[in-house]
Amino acid sequence: MNDDEKFEKLNMEMFQEFMSKNPHYATFFGLHDPYDWMMPDGSSKNVFESLEIAKGWIDRTKKAVKFNELNNDHKIDVKVLEHSYELTSFSVNEHRTWETNPDAFDEMGGVFFVMLTRDYAPIEKRVEAIVARLEKLPVYMREFRTRFEKSKPVKLWTEIALESCQQIPGLFQFIVMATKGAISEELHNRLAKAVTTLQQPIKEHLEWLQALLPKTKTEWALGKEKFDRLLKIRGLGMTSEEILKLGVKYLQELKEERTRLAKQIAPGKGIKEAMELIEAKTPKTFEEALKATKEAMEKAREFIIQNDLATVYPDDMLHVVETPGFMAPLIPFAALIDRLPYRSQQPVPFRSFHRPHIHLIWPTHRYLDHSRLPTWLF
User: Fold this and answer.
1) Which of 42, 80, 155, 315 could be cross-linked to 143 through a Cys-Cys bond (beta carbons 3.0 to 4.6 Å apart)?
2) Structural domain harbouring 259
3) Is the same domain home to 178 and 309?
4) Are 362 and 109 in contact (CB under 8 A)?
5) Are residues 14 and 154 in the same domain?
6) 93 phi and psi, to 5 degrees?
7) 340 confidence band (pLDDT: 50, 70, 90)
């Protein structure tokens, strides 16, 4: 067995161990069987155990294979793994948002949404997995709450978590309504029962968040020393002072460009009048904004294809949809969601990805004031 084969074997073992600990990541990656039926441990125990798996992954690789004997793809994989571990270690041990941000649905809510909206399997099978996870959700929430027994969460993040928790039942009810008639009656009844059963655990979680508010801290920052260390880990090649100077420079240049463009749009008038002219031509309702965004994305896609600017694969699809309510507090305008890196139902080892990802674009949720959306979206 040569070094590349040893690396492949070790890579598979460690990848499967990590995904078994974090099955929600597997779902995001497009690895569904058996992970879609599983839930992670919600406590801090899983945070540190996952970090140890990543460290063990690197340590075992160094002992088992000679880096110089690996092919170029595997060398890239090793470097990406090492860098990912360094960033994750900083996040867990220094940033510590796992004990300062009490939003239990930050990741798990997104998992349910992905399972419903992506057609990677028949709807019956996807709902079976959704139900299995819904039935395990109360345990996950109880485990999640133990992270904050000795910590002081950030007040703003706690308020966002409260709003997210209030919105999440709407997602579950939507799943019930959207699947009626599309799945067997037996499975739909089980789904409805699971959602109904969740009402009390979610109510308890909401009460816990409300009780947490008086214990929160209003001001929180990473601090200059840690921030500079993070910049170094990310390899940006600049200090915080240099980035600040660059930001000020770009801001000044953008203001000058804005003034120049305003004179072209509204000759003899100012920036305010130019903005009013632009806003007069923008969509007036959410539905119009959604339609305009879809049309703009299609035009951009065609422009890229016609001018041969990048490879666009025939099976690549771009979906423009409304932001789910439970994510609206975190995504006030728009966001991009990566495509599923893996389409296979079988686990595959870690790879650094070179192919462009497909994105899912989420315009702002409809309860916001859509007239205040930045016009560049349209």
Assistant:
1) 42
2) 238-281
3) no
4) no
5) yes
6) -90, -25
7) low
